[in-house]
Amino acid sequence: MYNFSIWHWIILLAFIAFALFPFWRILNKAGYSGAWSILTLVPVVNLIVLWVFALVEWPVEKKSRS
For the chain, which residues make up each domain, given as ranges? Predict the structure, then answer.
């Protein structure tokens, strides 16, 4: 059970990359660092971060007003 093959790790890394890429792009376009997308991998934190980003004023919105 504890002997994972190299294919297991390759598939796991591909899944993580596939999950993070869209969040990284969205956050970059919103004016935030894409590194915030790593928080989407933490089970309860991802929902909290989603609500925070939905309710705060984005840097892109601040620039358009100036």
Answer: 6-65
